[in-house]
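Q: What would this chain look like folded?
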Amino acid sequence: MKIISGRLKGRSIKINKGNSFRPTLSRIREDLFNLLEHSKILNINIKDNVFYDLFCGSGSVGLEALSRGAKKVIFNDIDNLNVQSVKDFLIKTEFDNYEIYNNNAFANKGLISKEANIVYIDPPYINDLKLLEKNIFPQIANNCLIIFETNQKFEHQDLILKKEYKNKDLIFLKKTNDI
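A: My prediction, written as structure tokens:
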């Protein structure tokens, strides 16, 4: 797996093969960032935003955001090996505008920084969406863009864009007081 664009374009991302997560495919990452950068509905300039990769796994989405010039990227994963792989990758770069955490996103209240403008959520697919809505969404600041990757049916009143793929969807929500 490689970084698609930006200052780190072409660099390989290490995937811990023993893990049960599935890294976000290159074509989906490319679509994600094309939508962020070019959609009139989203109207996002990645360079003006703090990007939070909540269940980062290999870090591919957050690394792509960093490569494309995000103001800051915050990585989090519960798995020590994933966190170490992201750290090992970032040590070899000139970037210092990132933070890395090793926390259980479902158990830690106050985990999501209020400075985050974009929160990318790609939890393990075995988790219940109600748990996500109950424990994660309330931590996110109002007017934050939430991007949710899921293979489950998910509809929400704050949905602003949905991109469907064969076996998963990218859901874009704008956080309001009601979430």
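The helical segments are 26-38, 60-67, 80-91, 129-135.
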